[in-house]
Amino acid sequence: MSAASLFQARGLVKRFGGLLATDHVDLAVEKGEIHALIGPNGAGKSTLVNLISGLLPLDGGSLSLDGVELTGLAPHQRVRAGLSRCFQVTSVFGHDTVLDNLLLAAQAHAGSSFRFLSRRSAEKELMDTALALAETVDLAGALHRIAGTLPHGAQRKLDVALALAARPRLLLLDEPMAGMGPEDSLQMVALIEKLRAQTAILLIEHDMDAVFQLADRVSVLDYGRVLASGDVDYIKGHPEVQAVYLGTDTET
Ligand SMILES: Nc1ncnc2c1ncn2[C@@H]1O[C@H](COP(=O)(O)OP(=O)(O)OP(=O)(O)O)[C@@H](O)[C@H]1O
After folding, report:
1. Which residues line the pocket of ligand 1, CB cutoff 6 A?
2. What CATH number is attached to the domain comprising 7?
3. Total domains, the chain
4. Residues of the chain scoring pLDDT < 70
5. In the chain, how many H helices and how many E strands?
6. Which of 2, 14, 234, 252 is the most buried (most CB within 10 A)?
7. 222: CA distance to ligand 1 center in Å?
8. For 211, phi and psi rounded to 5 degrees?
9. Are residues 63 and 131 located together in one domain of the fold?
10. How are strands ordered across the β-sheet holding 83-86?
11. 60-72, pLDDT tens digit by residue?
């Protein structure tokens, strides 16, 4: 962790009764970095992501993004500060079209400059934003489809687009490949690789091929603490990581 890290988590603690689910975790994500978080089932990955996004209150420690203290902020305030997340369960509005989903998300994050635009200019700007998001996630050909009728892979891409509407500086992706077949997984890997240019990413994922392909750095959680953190070669060669995770079944 350097003083200039984009995102810093220091000494995070979460207890559930007697269980220490997050055990003094330090984690840093640098600008432009894809940082993967891996670990066996029950290691504390979801708990950590919920602490970072503000869905769970901390029992100890602090968080900052780009020098702004996030500790104690509500989830929507963290989004405004530049931290956006995708969920394991998709947050798409299933009965609306892809375009309406994107327009709603664009509007939600439009910001105060919109107050000074005419209605027509504001609508054009929202439409431009929505179309650009669709282009980014390769859904420009599905704008008028009802979101809930899209195949699973396309819904996950739409979910990513909704998170991108907030223009995050750090994007949390919680198992983006979950439930996907090989073709959709390849497309999601290509999308995440492309997003590297616009936001840093904290990626929680069980698909080790995807993790090793994408990650600049990998942190391994075990029993709520960081067992190891380093580049892919370091993690692949780490004896304890081999023992607790890579050498065993990595499927959920
Ligand atoms: N709300 C809760 N109340 C009590 N215990 C919890 C709660 N949430 C999680 N735990 C426990 O905390 C530990 C960490 O769980 P967590 O879901 O964060 O792990 P995980 O690494 O995300 O697992 P998975 O890969 O299965 O999603 C587990 O022992 C789990 O049973």
Report:
1. 16, 19, 21, 39, 41-47, 252
2. 3.40.50.300
3. 2
4. 1-3, 87-92, 111-117, 120, 248-252
5. 9, 10
6. 14
7. 11
8. -60, -50
9. no
10. 83-86, 170-174, 200-204, 34-38, 217-222, 225-230
11. 999 999 999 999 9
Q: Is the dihedral of CA 134, 33, 205, 12 positive or negative?
A: negative
Separation in Å, CA 237 to CA 35, 177, 206? 18, 24, 18
The Å distance, Cα 44 to ligand 1 centre, comes to: 5
* ipTM score: 0.95
From the alpha carbon of 50, which atom of ligand 1 is closest? Answer: 18
CA 150 – CA 122 distance, rounded (Å):
29
Say what the pTM is. Answer: 0.90
Query: Are 101 and 214 in a shared domain?
Result: no
Q: Which domain holds residue 145?
A: 93-167
| For ligand 1, atom 8: residue with the closest CA | 47
Q: How many residues are given for the chain?
A: 252
Considering the domain architecture, whether residues 148 and 179 belong to the same structural domain is answered as no
- Token look-up 């600049």 returns 216
How far, in Å, from the CA of 10 to the mean position of ligand 1?
20
C-alpha to C-alpha distance for 35 and 220, rounded to whole angstroms: 11
